[in-house]
Amino acid sequence: MTETYTLIYNPNAGSCGERRAMKIATTLETLGAIVVPVGTEAPGDAARLAREAVERGSKRIVIAGGDGTINEVVNGMAGSDIELAIIPMGTVNVLAKALSVPMNTGDACRLAVRGESIALDLGRAGDHYFTLMAGIGFDALTIKNLDPVLKRALRGAAFPISGIKTLIKEELPLISIRCSERETEGYFVIAANSRYYGGRFGPTPLAHMQDGLLDFCVLKEKSWTEMLRFWISSLMKEQLDEPLAEYFRTDRAEISCPSGEHVLVQTDGEIIGELPVQISLIPGGLRVCAGIGT
User: Fold this and answer.
1) What percentage of the chain has pLDDT greater than the value 90?
2) Quick check: 89 and 249 in contact, CB under 8 A?
3) 46, β-bridge pairs
4) Percentage helix, strand, coil for the chain under 3-state DSSP, each rounded to 5
5) Closest CA to 65 of 23, 31, 108, 15
6) Which of 198, 194, 172 is nearest to 185 (CA)?
7) Tens of pLDDT along 184-211?
8) pTM
9) How far apart are CA 282 and CA 129, in angstroms?
């Protein structure tokens, strides 16, 4: 059977569009790939198209899009042997940066066709898979409150602006975290598979996508001053000292809200639901073309 590459593209992601996607398909074919291009039209399409690519027996799924499209595709292909390749076309392109995928489209196409794939750990929050992180509480609220017009205009700078608005408007309930190693609580939880969080931020600088563990960061305080300290340290890619934040590593944890309030959960920048949720890790659960190891 002839090996094909399925090109999934989001015409609304960053600088991508129908014409740009067709140029990418042509470049991939010039490099020796047989390409089946398919575009998304609505939320959820990328996951469906990924499942169909798995059923067709594609060798690789090539994504021309951003982290949101990647997240959908990963949820459509998880559990299969198909390989993933990325042509960065999103607002921030966090996963592409984590994997040293070239931002230049031509170079990214060469990696997608001729590059070797590596095995990455794959996170899971409830029924949703993630490559980078799951966030519970503050950052999920920030994403929910994000103005899409502001995001298109300011790109990564829109997130801190939305975060400030969220701190002003929202009350953060206490969150409980339980795993085999410990029980703890805080007001904001990150379960990271990667040291890259968003743009230049890195609240879990020791996280690695091939070590079989998730790095948890639990923010213990919720005041303006402590939240500001947290994000400054994240910008510097430094871990905060206790008692402001607590760090630990595990492959599975139960997250809940003791008060029963509605607390949002996001994975890779997409809202997936509310607490309670089980966070876990699948070692080596995804093969991805990368410039270098993570």
Assistant:
1) 66
2) no
3) none
4) 30, 30, 35
5) 15
6) 172
7) 999 999 999 999 887 666 788 899 999 9
8) 0.89
9) 9
Per-residue pLDDT band at 1 (split at 50, 70, 90): very low
The most distant pair of C-alpha atoms in the chain lies apart, rounded to whole Å, by 60
Domain ranges, ordered by start, for the chain: 5-115, 128-284
Q: Per-residue pLDDT averaged across 53-75, rounded?
A: 95
Q: Which two tokens stand for residue 70?
A: 């990647």
Per DSSP, what are the bridge partners of residue 270? Answer: 267
Alpha carbons within 13 A on the beta-carbon side of 126: 17
Q: How far is 118 from 86, CA to CA, in rounded Å? A: 13
Residue type at 39? G
Q: Which of 94, 288, 131 is nearest to 103 (CA)?
A: 94
Pair of tokens at residue 208: 């690695």
Whole-number Cα distances in Å, 107 to 61, 100, 133, 280: 17, 11, 27, 34
Kindly report the CATH number that applies to the domain delimited by 5-115.
3.40.50.10330
Identify the three-state secondary structure at position 49: helix
Residue 217, amino acid: C
What CATH code would you report for 128-284? Answer: 2.60.200.40
Under DSSP, the state recorded for 198 is B
DSSP for 116-164 reads PEEEEEEEEETTEEESSEEEEEHHHHHHHT--HHHHHHHGGGHHHHHHH
The DSSP 8-state label assigned to residue 269 in this structure reads T
Domains 5-115 and 128-284 share a fold: no
* Residue 28 in tokens: 């991939």
269-274 long-range contacts, Cβ below 8 Å, gap at least 24?
Answer: 269/67, 269/68, 269/71, 269/94, 269/143, 269/198, 270/68, 270/71, 270/72, 270/143, 271/140, 271/143, 271/144, 272/125, 272/126, 272/128, 273/126, 273/128
